[in-house]
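*** Residues and shapes ***
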Amino acid sequence: MTLHIVNRSPTQSDALDSCIRRAQPGNAILLIEDAIYALLILEQLFSKYQKLSQLEIYALAEDVTARGASQWCTEQIRLVDYQGFVALTEHYPSSLSWY
């Protein structure tokens, strides 16, 4: 099980696409910093990548708030605070950062 941490906007890099292609069922994706902007295209991502429904998807609440993106959150996204971020890194035996 791997925690994939993405910090780049989908318009800035292909980090999220690469991450999704590499992720396996049971893995989790955590959106931080500018990766929060992926919430804008979440529906498109779920249509493009069927396996997203087999992954846990989290977003760092502080970054969501800082970008005024609360309205973009859907039931597929679980918000976590910094303590939740730490808990995720403890839960998943390995983590991979995508920049």
